[in-house]
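Weekend entry, working from home. Most of the wet-lab plans are on hold until the incubator is repaired, so I used the time to fold the two sequences that have been sitting in the queue since the last round of cloning. Logging both here for the record. First:
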Amino acid sequence: MKKMTCFAGVLLGAGLLAVNVHAQNSSTPYKVLYTTQLMGNGGIDYVYADNDGRRVYVPRGGTTFVFDLDSHKYVGAISNVGGHGVAIDTATHHGVCSGSPPALFDTQTMMKIKDIPVQSRPDGILLEPLTDRVYILSHSSPSITGIDPKDGTVTGTVDVGGNLEQAQSDGQGKLYVDIEDQKKIGVVDVKTLKVLTRYDLGADAGEPGGLGLDAKNHILFAMCASPNVCVVVNALDGKVLATLPIGNGTDGGGFNAHTMEAWSSQRDGTLTIIKENSPTSFVVEQTVQTKSGCKTSALDTKNDRIVLICTERAAAAAPAPATNPPAGGQRRGGGGGPGNLDVLWVGR
């Protein structure tokens, strides 16, 4: 297997390292195809793949770093915009970062527009396509806050109860969200911002941190920790369809409708791939070795690749300038000190 290593540019006195590994054809198993490393400071939480704009956004400390989704190269940084995660609205070229407070920024100029005052403690985030609203998830009341990405105004709130983690939209008016501390999935009507129901994941479930959704077949994949299982649920009635083993320390997951595969990214350096053979048949297809700490993920829908992030201390890393983490810190974020930010592309 041929590898190529090169250095390019300097960021804030820190080096950028890109490692490329040639992909194999579609008949081969998943593996790490590319890794981009960027020196810096601060903790991380979520990674966001902007499939329309072909960019990857990673908040770290008080800055959001941007990478090219296709070339894997570092693009630049959005200063004074940091937090847990990012959501991008293609129509307005605006993004929202779920910091404390959240921030609105311009994706073309890569400049901050303004802070957005909210009442909750921002954590997870997503863009809901039917309402064209960004929803920020929280572990405190109000647990969901809607934001108009055009101007950053707050459009409404709803309390689902409990500690909210990842969420998925079916594009038809329902938002499904992990309620971590209750081992449930909340179902919200995004048109009325009302809680419709809560699905209990059952006695065999752990705390859900990642969530995938097969919207066509109405199947939810709740990725749980302690115990480490994926609980497969009928999204229409909450019936548990299957419980499958995954790796240790999940904090992200999703579903690829093109390949009919769900995935869970884990802190122990594994990525679990689950094949949906039919709406009633599911199997663990592969456990991919990634890197320790790569617990959150996003999907490159064009190339059927999963993007992961983690941090690691470099043995001889030069100190990077300190960045100011958002108020309240970053819950469960990795690698608060100086060291590499690793962005991994996993595919076939």
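Second, folded right after the first finished:
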Amino acid sequence: MPDLVRELESLAEGARRAIGAAADERALEDLRVRYLGKKGEVSAVLRGMGQLAPEERPRVGDVANRVRDEVEALLATARERLASERLERELRGPPIDVTLPGRRLVPAGHRHPVTRATEEIVGIFARLGYEVASGPEIELDWYNFEALNIPKDHPARDMQDTFYVDEATLGPGAGEGSILLRTHTSPIQIRAMKRAGAPPVRVVAPGRVYRSDYDQTHSPMFHQVEGFCVGERITFADLKGTLAAFARAFFGASTRTRFRPSYFPFVEPGAEMDIGCVFCRPSDGSRTSCRVCKGTGWLEILGCGMVHPEVLEHCDIDPERWTGFAFGMGVERVAMLRYGIPDIRLLFENDPRFLAQF
């Protein structure tokens, strides 16, 4: 027994010197394994207790426990010492210049060109005094077609082939009648006028719409901005002035505009608005070869017209007293013209090489 006790005391003395001289955390970990590991020196001593008489084992066990606890305490104290020394070195080291600009580890993101175009369009009309409104993308047939003077047998529905929703999937309270993904943002016009109760009303309504189209210039999901103004003595001249001001603000101060007669069920009279081609100029001879405007010098960007009396009556507005105009444009189309994008599908492929250009 005396040999084991002396061995443990000697082991403790050696641990004190070694731990006190440890220079870093790695050295401390090596010492922990050396003394306290499964194959460490303390464990080796304890394995020899099996040769002792039963009455001698408690005393040797007490000494072994004391040595083990002491080594653990020495290791903990040494770790605190090393941490304190490391902190002191950092505080005494060269100062950190907190005024230096941060390092960007991830490239900056880019706003999508459709988002940029939508925000700019809405901003222009907001400055003209229009309120921004929104509505549901899953819409009732009445708001999407019937209230806009497009009854069930109207041929205009063929031009707006869309996606219908099974009413059973929507749960109770979804409403009666056909439910569909809206084909335009014009239903917001009906909702906004009914919500306002009485004119004057000036609203611009951006949002996603859906149709069964997919090719170089069409997408099954795209974005529109609908706008309308209803009040007393609103005329087609107000419509032309408003849209001409928008075109100059969006495409440039020198942008030319023209209006061509066209048909839309929810306006009367209706028109298409064109702008001067932004890709060619007659002065340099490029117009004759322009593939975008096909040499005409004009590009169609939106449809518009005076709000049909039937639409006003569906909103409980007297068409004998109130008049108004409405317009709608595809955001992708004006974005493609603004940024020179040749294929609408590029806008939805999420290719960072394409998006990084904006």
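Plan for Monday: verify the second prediction. Residues 35 and 41 are 5 Å apart (CA to CA).
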